[in-house]
Amino acid sequence: MNAVLDVGGRLAEFALLDQVLQASLLVQLVILLLALASVISWAVILFKWRELRGAEKHSEAFLTSYGGSVWSGNALAASRRHPRSPLAAIFRAAHAQLSAFSRARGIAAEQPLDPLAQRVVDGQVAWTSARESARLERRLSFLATVGSAAPFVGLFGTVLGIIDSFTQIGEAGSASLAVVAPGIAEALIATAIGLLAAIPASVFYNHFAARLQELQRKIEVFAAQLSGELTHMPPDAAAPAAPAARRGKG
Questions:
Q1: Angle formed by the axes of helices 115-137 and 86-105, to 10°?
Q2: What DSSP line would sit under 135-194, residue for residue?
């Protein structure tokens, strides 16, 4: 019984491949386009799954080490240990901007941030937040496009297959199953491949969009917290590069 089922499955595979090879050139192009879109979609899905999982894990680990202090001894080291975290990237950008500003202006360690320095660092935090959000959104638009367009491309292949069936009916002068079946089979194959490409793309797009929304909320909260800490930074916690600036003056 199993042997019979195995043979039947192989015959079905050969019949399906036969239908694709015997389809009209336009239907073959539609099927090829949909198959290519499906393969690329799965590559994007695997990449985004790994990217978002890394961003989530690294962000949680960074927040644990961050401890809520801009200039805590472990904060900068922790941000470098978690390069896939968007929060760590925001912190490094703010730290680097403040250090560069302090060196250029020669601000002493006991002085708080002046309004110009605050605006510069806030701008860097906002720009880096936007850049990290855009980085995490990258390639999701492809999944959205495949999820929305693939069924219609498959429908286009379906229409071509039906047109081919009517053409064969006209040429044969008969509407028998043997005449109609090949064109209808082409149409159904194009529809099926269109759905196979669209369904995973739509499901994973929605899944990734929900996870990305959560990450973007964390980015917004962390950026606001970081800017607030810099605004209310005590005088003795100002720029880390100020001691070097004072030695240069001496």
A1: 150
A2: HHHTTHHHHHHHHHHHHHHHHHHHHHHHHHHHHHHHHHT---HHHHHHHHHHHHHHHHHH
DSSP type of residue 106 = T
Burial class of residue 143 (count of CB atoms within 10 Å of its CB; 0-12, 13-18, 19+): buried
Quote the mean pLDDT of the chain. Answer: 78
DSSP state of 236: G
Average pLDDT estimate for 205-232: 89
Averaged pLDDT, 25-42: 89
Q: Is 68 left (phi over 0), alpha (psi -120 to 50) or beta?
A: left
pTM above 0.90, yes or no: no
Question: Please, which contacts does 160-166 make with residues 24 or more away whose CB atoms are closer than 8 Å?
Answer: 160/24, 160/26, 160/27, 160/30, 160/186, 160/187, 160/190, 161/23, 161/24, 161/27, 161/185, 161/186, 161/187, 161/188, 161/189, 161/190, 162/187, 164/23, 164/24, 164/27
Tabulate helix, strand, coil % of the chain (nearest 5).
Answer: 85, 0, 15
- For residue range 91-108, list pLDDT tens digits in order: 988 888 877 777 766 654
Whether the CA torsion 55, 56, 57, 63 is positive or negative: it is: positive
DSSP, collapsed to helix, strand or coil, labels residue 198 as helix
CB 67 within 8 A of CB 74: yes
